[in-house]
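Lab notebook page, bench 4
Experiment: in silico fold of construct C2
Operator: M.H.
Input chain length: 95 residues
Purpose: comparison with the prior construct
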Amino acid sequence: MSTNAELLARRNAAVIRGVGHITPLSAAKAKNAEVWDVEGKRYVDFAGGIGVLNTGHRHPKVIAAVEAQLQKFSHTAFQIVPYHSYIELAERING
């Protein structure tokens, strides 16, 4: 496994400069409101996907929903092959 410094060097060599980052850390795993870096240090994840991860990392209900969806299909372009859940969500939002 790589260190944070090694991954940062690889990131700087491979990723365009327009994609910024705040910390020199690289995530290895996360659960609830915590994240562990590749060196095993634990942090409180205050960013949480920039505020869109209000359930925390790996919430059991989210994992179950993802697993259920993957049993059907992982992704299809709605503009080519529409699917029920997309339409249902649109109806709920419009309601």
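Observations: The longest helix spans residues 60-72. The mean pLDDT is 87.
Next step: discuss at group meeting.
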